[in-house]
Amino acid sequence: MSGGRKKDFDSEVALQSAMHVFWEKGYIGASLSNLTERMGINKPSLYNTFGNKEALFIQATKLYCDNKINSLSALLADKTIPLKQRLKNYMMSVLSVQCESEPAKGCYVVQCQSEVASGEIPNEASQLLMHAGEAVKDLLISTLSDDQESKALGLDKEAKQKALCLSATLRGTATLARSGYSKDELEYVIDHSLKGIGLDENAKDSV
């Protein structure tokens, strides 16, 4: 007898589908029926391939972070581009994810983090969400602390506070994007936030 039945589905495609279910409904709102229907598999296949709901959620969250958050960090690294434009490029790319991703909109992490206080999300999953939620702020802190242009403008002296302002802006645009606001409408919010931390007349835009 063979060593087991061969999978008749693509696990990567199924995981992408699960990610979008959690993105739309959150951890608590996503039922196993929602998940298996969108993934195109049955419950035994879900358990055999991904584990339980929490294990599937952790894998889906890591997939979102790798594809939608971590991959954008390179936009802040090109020192040939002025700081203000690098920050805007990064924030607008995050905004594109929030506004243009279908079928879900907004931010997966923000959507699911809102449920953490309920106590219904298992601890490991909650910790992963908290870490993911801090990743954007930490990246911005690092940029504002270490960048030579930021230092020349004195932004590094309040890097944590200014990074918090920018990350709070992106959390706000995530909620607005989920409510139907467009990328063009929310670009003003990004511009105003950058102006608010001191990147306005004193910072050059790229040509």
UniProtKB/TrEMBL annotation:
<dbReference type="InterPro" id="IPR009057">
    <property type="entry name" value="Homeodomain-like_sf"/>
</dbReference>
<keyword id="KW-0805">Transcription regulation</keyword>
<keyword id="KW-0804">Transcription</keyword>
<dbReference type="GO" id="GO:0003677">
    <property type="term" value="F:DNA binding"/>
</dbReference>
<keyword id="KW-0238">DNA-binding</keyword>
<protein>
    <submittedName>
        <fullName>Transcriptional regulator, TetR family</fullName>
    </submittedName>
</protein>
<dbReference type="InterPro" id="IPR036271">
    <property type="entry name" value="Tet_transcr_reg_TetR-rel_C_sf"/>
</dbReference>
<feature type="DNA-binding region" description="H-T-H motif">
    <location>
        <begin position="31"/>
        <end position="50"/>
    </location>
</feature>
<feature type="domain" description="HTH tetR-type">
    <location>
        <begin position="8"/>
        <end position="68"/>
    </location>
</feature>
<dbReference type="Pfam" id="PF00440">
    <property type="entry name" value="TetR_N"/>
</dbReference>
<dbReference type="InterPro" id="IPR001647">
    <property type="entry name" value="HTH_TetR"/>
</dbReference>
